[in-house]
Predict the 3D structure of the following.
Amino acid sequence: MAAIAVHKFAQCITCHAWSPDLSMVAFCPNSNEVHIYKLLQDKWEKVHVLQKHDQIVSGIDWSARSNRIVTASHDRNSYVWNLEGSEWVPTLVILRLNRAALCVQWSPKENKFAVGSGAKTVCVCYYEQENNWWVSKLIRKRHDSSVTGVAWHPNNIFLATTSTDGKCRVFSTFIKGVDTKDSRTGPTSDSKFGEQIVQLDLSFSWAFGVKWSPSGNTLAYVGHNSMIYFVDDVGPSPLAQNVAFRDLPLRDVLFVSERMAIGVGFDCSPMVFAADDRGIWSFIRFLGERKVTSSGSTYGSQFSEAFGKLYGGQTKHGVSNDAVEPSRSRGGIHENCIKYLLYSAA
């Protein structure tokens, strides 16, 4: 329903986000504005237009608890929007970038947000109560190209990034006075802000759409080479595997459970991936298709549940799952590339 509604609003959507109660959707219609629509009597009506950016808005995230919207733009700035009465009031966040901001995401505790940029830099922003403004701390000199995706670990400390240099990295974003020491656990508990926890060199092409599983035990991201990567035990000795497919590349991935993920991209149809009892990931089916591949027969009930929510002896180390599906006619609900994927348990 989310995707159908958005495609009715405009021909090209650069980014979008849902309100906490799923009654409103905010999106950028390939401009410097953010339009907010609300579902009123089974019809979507425009209720707000957020106008502050000078160039295309490239990232939007709507916080679940504090009901704040954060936007990022090619104008190299970010705004935090607070609803005061019936109006959205913006607060400028100076990111100190010399290239476009490309993506943005609130942290789980909503006391920080991260911005990826074309400046090979990640901005981690937090609110400074004493001075009543948002402060940006930069993770520099770690990426060799644009940062295409950011994803927060459930512990509110670790931040995963993808880049057009083909790598996925995990950093510590611990900020004294903002984060608590008990948030840091495991062998990397003493890591400082900006310290790199791990660098994954699994893809030889652009990397996109990084996400953590609900528990934070598994990390997934996609490559422009029609592959998706799953990484367990993220740290000094990660366990990694990849799934290759013959269809067009993915742009984003989302976990709907610990053992199931949905990928979307240039093929216009969401793809379902699942892990078996051994933890080996494989492609199951395209959403909307009735026929399930033989490898996916175990996942019937789990897939049905995930589908409903979404629309309303090898060792695991270095596993390459190269069993691919034959080509098929493309199209369905979507008529073009699906760039982003959002999920809510509501």
Notes: Helices lie at 2-9, 300-310.
